[in-house]
Write a structure and sequence with these properties.
- It is globular, with a radius of gyration of 17 Å.
- It is an alpha/beta fold and 266 residues long.
- It has helices at residues 37-43, 71-85, 97-108, 128-142, 146-157, 160-165, 167-178, 182-193, 222-231, 247-250, 252-263, and strands at residues 2-6, 9-16, 23-26, 49-52, 90-95, 113-119, 209-214, 235-240.
- The structure holds D-malate.
- D-malate binds at residues 28-29, 96-97, 192, 219, 245.
């Protein structure tokens, strides 16, 4: 892992390969950059690939100490990293929470973005039900129930097929989620709950987009991805057969193929 201090935060990130535009991979909640290992291995022989740990996850500390975390704050940090590395504009791929950060990046730092991959994510803000669930999760984690919250997520993020037949993928997802600190989980839950709606933004996205979704994604189902791709001016939709919400972990070969074809456009 490399480190760069961005606005006082020591951001840890994977940096592999050469070639521009670089690909910046933004991880899901509550995972870290390690979820992209298969993508880094497959794509870095052809392209520079950068995958940061967002604050509070993996090896990047939650910051600023005592400050408020937001998707915009995460995007500011990613923009700072892109600038620091001199790789603007980059192709930015975000999965789920990483997609929420990508929307904030498109809104606040469009000059940093050459293209976007929106994987297993949604432009809409939280529904009242989801917001309520996050509030309950915050309380549960604060009361010491981090392991229970993570275990419930293992159940909802992976497809039935993955859970039934691929114990190694289940174990990897569980391990990636278990390293998150309680503070990081609480901060990100509150930040996701407070994120603005990005639906109106879609029509104004003026860079090429790839929308990827697992066929059995529960939290961000294919219908959501289809609507998002339809609202984007220049988007291709790729549905990954057999995968759930963590499509890059559940079907890395299909995910990598979709990413590689998209990168060929640049
Ligand atoms: C994720 O995978 O990042 C989460 O499911 C996002 C969310 O809870 O909205």
């Amino acid at each position: 892992m490399a480190t760069a201090v961005i606005s006082g935060t020591p951001v840890q990130f994977v940096d592999a390969g050469e070639g521009s535009p670089a690909l910046v991979l933004l991880h899901a909640f509550p995972l870290h950059s390690g979820m992209w290992d298969d993508q880094v291995a497959a794509l870095s022989p052809h392209r520079r690939v950068v995958a940061p740990d967002l604050p509070g996850f993996g090896s990047t500390p939650l910051s600023p100490a005592g400050g408020t975390v937001s998707m915009s704050g995460f995007a500011d940090l990613v923009a700072g990293l892109i600038d620091h590395l001199g790789i603007a504009p980059a192709v930015v791929a975000g999965l789920s929470m990483g997609g929420y950060v990508t929307f904030a990046l498109l809104r606040d730092h469009p000059e940093m973005v050459a293209g976007v991959v929106l994987a297993d994510t949604r432009a809409a803000a939280d529904s009242p039900e989801v917001a309520e669930r996050r509030t309950a999760q915050v309380a549960e984690v604060a009361a010491g129930g981090k392991a229970e919250v993570v275990e419930a997520m293992v159940g909802t993020l992976l497809s039935d097929e993955t859970r039934a037949r691929r114990p190694e993928v289940v174990e990897r997802a569980r391990a990636l989620m278990s390293t998150a600190s309680a503070e990081g989980i609480i901060a990100a839950l509150e930040a996701m709950r407070g994120r603005p709606d990005a639906v109106e933004q879609l029509a104004a996205v003026d860079v090429p987009a790839l929308v990827v979704v697992g066929e059995h994604d529960g939290p961000s189902p294919p219908a959501v991805a289809e609507a998002m791709a339809g609202a984007l001016p220049d988007a291709h939709l790729e549905v990954i057969g057999g995968a759930g919400h963590l499509s890059n972990l559940e079907a890395p070969a299909a995910f990598n193929d979709a990413l590689a074809s998209f990168l060929n456009r640049f």
